[in-house]
Amino acid sequence: MKKIFTSVLFLTFAASVMAQENLVQNSTFEEWNDENGRPENWLLYDGTATRIEGTSAGTYGTSWSQTGKGNSALLQYVNGLTENTKYTVSYDYKVTNVNSDNSFRHWLRWQNADRKYLSTDSYLDDDYEDMQFGGDNSVYMENSTEWKHVSMEITTPETAVSLYLAFRCYGGSTVAIANPMMVEGSGSGLSDAQAEKTGIYSANGNVYVLSNGVGTVEVYNLLGQLVRTEQVVDGCNELSGLNAGQVYVVRYGDKAQKVVL
């Protein structure tokens, strides 16, 4: 009976992970276009970009700085969305060179099948605030020189099939981005709430397990195959060496948590 329960538990989590396909292309920034000086599947306006290693979310991220007078934007169009559906958008960032009180913010807009931007009348109030679109130009992110995690839940209005996903820097500042994600439903990844609930979370390309004693941790891939077994001790345990950009299900005792590296 225990084996049957374990299989059912894993399949439940695996189905949840598979439903949460990351819709952002080249989110690991591993694919790079040297000729254009930017990551593949991303557009860059009025700025210069560099691929960086050792980010909060895995091996690669990207940083870029403004070269024009207004702002620089790193962006892509996330396609294949379903109207009237909840999505979670998340990313990690840090401002590596602060030249302005207002250095960075994200900028999101819905589009229909004709590539027309939808009126903000279509947005719910909480969506409007989270997406930080237009209006109040004083809405900027904290000028943090340490990695910060940002996550928001937004719902596609009617006729929306695409999202303009942009990261903007201002005032000659330099900003680094890692692990941009857009998944259907509630998202996963680096989260204080996740760590508090399960004691299992991901950061800096590693998995961390908070334990109050000695135990065994099992790591599964999306096919349900056991890829790692580790003995943990009391305190915070680090599991390194897993593949960046992959999704795993980590089991410890009666707890299981999907993590994205």
* The CATH top-level class label of the largest domain: Mainly Beta
Major beta sheet summary = 5 strands, antiparallel
How many helices? The count is 3
Number of domains: 2
Mean pLDDT, rounded to whole units?
78
- Fraction in helix: 10-25%
CATH topology call of the largest domain: Jelly Rolls
The main sheet orders its strands as 4-5-11-7-9
Number of strands: 18
CATH architecture of the largest domain: Sandwich
Which band does the percent of strand residues land in? Answer: 35-45%
What do you see in this structure?
The protein has 261 residues and is mainly beta. The chain has 2 domains: 89 residues, Immunoglobulin-like (Sandwich), CATH 2.60.40; 153 residues, Galactose-binding domain-like (Jelly Rolls), CATH 2.60.120.260. Helices cover 12% and strands 45% of the residues. It has 3 helices and 18 strands. Strands 4-5-11-7-9 form a 5-stranded antiparallel β-sheet, covered by helices on one side. Strands 3-6-10-8 form a 4-stranded antiparallel β-sheet, with no helix packed on it. A hairpin with a 2-residue loop joins strand 12 and strand 13. The chain starts with a helix and ends with a strand.
